[in-house]
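Do me a favour: review this protein, sequence plus structure tokens, and tell me how the chain folds. Record follows.
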Amino acid sequence: MRRYDLTPLLRSSVGFDRFDRLFDSANRQEGTGNSYPPYNIEKSDDDYRITMAVAGFTDADIELTVKDNTLVVQGNPLAEREGVNYLHHGIAGRGFERRFELAENVKVVGARLENGMLHVDLVRETPEHMKPRRIEINSAAA
């Protein structure tokens, strides 16, 4: 596994200690080759939406949790239907787990399942202390 030295990029930055962990997490997920279920990430203004294709799953089969700025989406395996003889079984019904790293101020505000698509809505909430503010300069003469 490659380690990236971010020192030149972070010389003029303060408080970006999570970057190393974030890059390690991205490299680890990239190498697994797991692409099920497929997903999209959309952005509009300060809102985000993760859309996952989860055909055949019900809302009771899917669990969403947020812990330590990580959104975890888990799908429990579908129960095999008894007495069904498949000629072709192409719809994946296996369990899955997807993890998404969230920024400090991104919050999950809702989720809904419609037409086999799971939509997870997120919003970026900028706290008051992070908004730009003007700093007055005091002169020594005053």
